[in-house]
Write a structure and sequence with these properties.
single chain, about 300 residues, mainly beta, Beta-galactosidase, Chain A, domain 5, ten-stranded antiparallel β-sheet, 2 helices, about 5% helix, globular
């Protein structure tokens, strides 16, 4: 299930099943740089010239899946993850724990564990620990950078009758550069679609409540990830528990945990995602396809995954 490989000059681990694989470099990180169905291309987007690099003094984009802490700040957030990580294999042999050195500028230490659940599903655990001398308020922020030839589906909460819903149930949060008149945005009754092939410059949106899963369809397969939303908790960015950012070469699927104050010298926050890779789904860019052929498969995956 776990193989030691070379990936573009990095020492890396390959978590492989009969139907899917993840590739995790150990010379930098914690990162996951490849996520693919067997025999298919990487669903993550990576910058070719950044692969294999290490030791850079500043944050390097690279691509793949990474762990940050929110709210976003130009110094605190963009701390480099360009050095080797500590690696420990899980006792059952189904995964690994990756531990970064403590960030000198923040006192925060990042940790990520990756575990195989079944042939096409993975559990990704994120942990931020405060080793500094004062408390820190933050939220775990898990970002998956997806390739640019797909279609993102963000499900909306179920509709209710007016008499059962006198108060608002959620908010859609735009950024200052968000332009909902652009063709990249597809607003439907039950979901928001993002057509990344229509992207022309930066766009971002956040949601304060949603069913917890988001899916990204590509010709090479569909990537879905789920995280538990804690209703009533305080989240960053005007209350966002999920955000999507897209530009000319990728889209980021960004899940967030609640804001919490981490005590000095050992306080920590945890955030768990569940990933599924599904082949053969149709492009979900219409209400009929989404409701009849796409969402039922995602919901079946959720009901059969260890969540």
């Amino acid at each position: 299930m776990i193989q030691e490989i070379d990936f573009h000059g990095w020492k890396a681990l390959r978590l492989v099943t009969d139907q899917a694989e993840l590739i995790i470099p150990t010379d930098i990180g914690p990162r996951i740089v490849s996520c693919a169905l067997a025999g298919e291309e990487n669903l993550f987007a990576c910058i070719g010239e950044h692969l294999g690099g290490r030791g850079e003094s500043e944050f390097t984009v690279r691509g793949g899946h990474r762990l940050w802490h929110s709210p976003e700040h130009p110094q605190r957030t963009y701390q480099p993850d360009n050095s080797p990580v500590g690696v420990k294999r899980l006792d059952d042999g189904r995964g690994v724990i990756l531990t970064q050195n403590i960030e000198a500028a923040t006192g925060i230490q990042k940790q990520m564990s990756v575990e195989i659940i079944n042939s096409t599903s993975f559990r990704v655990y994120h942990r931020l620990t405060n080793h500094g001398f004062w408390p820190v308020e933050l939220a775990p922020w898990a970002l998956s950078v997806m390739r640019h030839d797909g279609y993102c589906v963000i499900p909306l909460p179920p509709k209710k009758a007016h008499t059962d819903s006198l108060l608002p149930g959620m908010a859609i949060v735009p950024w200052a550069y968000t332009d909902f008149s652009l063709p990249i945005w597809n607003f439907h009754r039950d979901f928001i679609g993002i057509d990344t092939q229509q992207a022309n410059g930066s766009q971002k949106v956040g949601l304060t409540s949603f069913p917890g899963w988001v899916a990204y369809w590509t010709p090479a397969g569909t990537f879905v990830k789920y995280h538990q939303v804690t209703h009533g908790a305080a989240y960053p960015d005007l209350g966002c528990c999920f955000e999507a950012y897209t530009c000319d070469w990728m889209i980021e699927l960004e899940s967030l945990g609640p804001l919490s104050c981490l005590p000095a010298q050992g306080g920590y926050a945890e955030h768990v995602e569940y990933w599924g890779l599904i082949k053969g789904l149709p492009r979900p860019d219409s209400d009929a396809v989404y409701n009849d052929k796409f969402r039922p498969v995602i919901e079946h995956w959720l009901s059969h995954t260890r969540i």
